[in-house]
Write a structure and sequence with these properties.
- The chain is mainly alpha-helical.
- Helices cover about 70% and strands about 0% of the residues.
- α5 crosses α12 and α5 runs parallel beside α14.
- The longest helix has about 35 residues.
Length: about 375
């Protein structure tokens, strides 16, 4: 493949800033995998951990789900699966897209449902009948920027820490790949440099390097990028090498961060084997999609599932606890039925947010940010 640096591209032949990226066939299996990852995280928040959810249930989820709580505890690894998917999707969406269009696409995708979720959770938590503490008006307002975590403000949404991770990934990818123009060589170099730099940052234990390079999450994003290169050319040895190294490093970080020795003081014990297995299955699932092995899963409802995933992910934790409290402690509904009804209620709320917020605001934000001035 000829390098794009071999000779300058004439100004007249460069794509216009407003040129639309090439339309690609939708990978509906990827939408379904998104929802699976979100449901994994919901299982963790509802029955796989202690903390505030214990107040919602009235007792520990160990009591509510004597057997299942040990499996629900692995649901937190849905986040790592999300990051692999994100690496794949961001590389795909940024490949033929100018920087302005890339930024408009990301902003219009993230902001409408996020703003709605922040306002909704803030309003619900301010109700006297809700058992959770409300945030100060100042902290609630700064949450609208998505910068509450680096600014040290309390979070309205418990899951928004992952958005801060995603935003830093978008920034790195935009600066290093989208702005100069995505090519195979540039993407491979980005993956190699980020992997090495993240390992150095991990060894240096320097807070600023950790903040920028995110060594514990970098291998999942890089692995997803490598899998997109595989999707473009399954015979690309460099792409497979990126995926293999990312899986090896990623499982190491997952085990180091999420494994603990069996202890009566711990909520549940995740085995090292279980953590490695779920990370591996996440990589294999995205790899199967990249290779076209799941092209048969082309049902239209998977697109709907993918559309509901983000708003569901935003609202499910804190509002889910409110629903659990009302159903289980207020109405005496059994544990299993409460769990099922809570998930159903959060999916319904996600549909409403997608239908009346995202579909209304996203096109307007995208058009406003894409307009050349």
């Amino acid at each position: 493949m000829t390098s794009t640096l071999a000779r300058p591209v004439p100004e007249a032949s460069r794509p216009a800033e407003t040129e639309k990226p090439r339309v690609r066939p939708r990978l509906r299996a990827l939408d379904g995998l998104r929802l699976v990852a979100a449901l994994m995280v919901a299982a963790y928040h509802y029955g796989g951990r202690g903390g505030d959810v214990t107040t919602a249930w009235g007792s520990s989820p160990k009591t509510q789900f004597p057997t299942l709580h040990e499996y629900f505890a692995y649901g937190c690894l849905g986040v790592q699966v999300f990051f692999v998917i994100s690496g794949f999707v961001i590389c795909m969406s940024g490949w033929d897209r100018p920087l302005r269009s890339f930024f408009a696409s990301r902003a219009s995708r993230l902001l409408p449902a996020y703003w709605a979720a922040v306002l909704l959770v803030t309003a619900v938590f301010a109700l006297p009948v809700v058992v959770h503490d409300a945030l100060s008006p100042s902290d609630a307002l700064v949450n609208l920027t998505m910068l509450q975590q680096p600014l040290g403000a309390d979070r309205v949404l418990g899951v928004c820490w992952t958005l801060w991770v995603e935003i830093r990934f978008y920034a790195l990818f935009a600066l290093c790949v989208v702005m100069p123009g995505a090519t195979r060589q540039r993407v491979i170099l980005f993956c190699a440099v980020w992997t090495m730099a993240a390992a150095i940052a991990d060894a240096a234990d320097e807070p600023l390097l950790d903040l920028v390079l995110m060594p514990e999450y970098a291998p999942f994003f890089v692995g997803g990028i490598g899998l997109y290169l595989v999707h473009r050319d399954r015979r690309d040895a460099y792409a497979w090498g990126i995926v293999a190294v990312s899986w090896l490093v990623g499982q190491h970080h997952a085990v180091r961060d999420l494994w603990h020795a069996p202890s009566p003081d711990a909520f549940s014990h995740r085995s090292s084997f279980g953590i490695v297995l779920i990370v591996t299955l996440g990589f294999l699932a995205v790899a199967a999609i990249a290779l076209g092995r799941l092209n048969w899963a082309n049902w239209r409802w998977l697109t709907v599932a993918g559309a509901l995933t983000y708003p569901f992910y935003l609202v499910h934790e804190h509002l889910g606890w409110v629903v659990i409290h009302g159903l289980h402690r207020g109405l005496g509904v059994g544990s299993a039925a409460t769990l099922a009804l809570t998930v159903a209620a959060m999916l319904l709320l996600a549909w409403l947010l997608n239908r009346y917020v995202e579909k209304t605001l996203a096109p307007k934000i995208r058009a406003a940010l894409s307009r050349v001035r």
